[in-house]
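Methods — Computational structure assignment.
A single polypeptide chain was analysed. Its primary sequence is given first, followed by the predicted tertiary structure written as structure tokens.
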Amino acid sequence: MLGGAEADDLTRLERYAAAIGLAFQVVDDILDATEGALQLGKTAGKDQAAAKATYVRVHGMDGARRIAADLLAEAESALEHMGPRAELLRELAHMIVRRRA
């Protein structure tokens, strides 16, 4: 809004933010199931021990990875019309989905 974005831009940025925010959580669930405490910087496997309904637990590892990829595609799609102006947001989305502990 401060940058003078049009209403359509704001709607697309909201779509991007929703997709990438959810992708962050999906990847966090994947990392919790696949990485150790040393890599994570926090206790690993807490979600599994607490029997939480994580993306990995509900959809399996392959399903969770597929969901993360789909959310990345959704985030990129939301930015499509913005061209090079959105390159940093695209890079951020890729970093979030492809991050490792």
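Note: Residues 7-98 form one domain.
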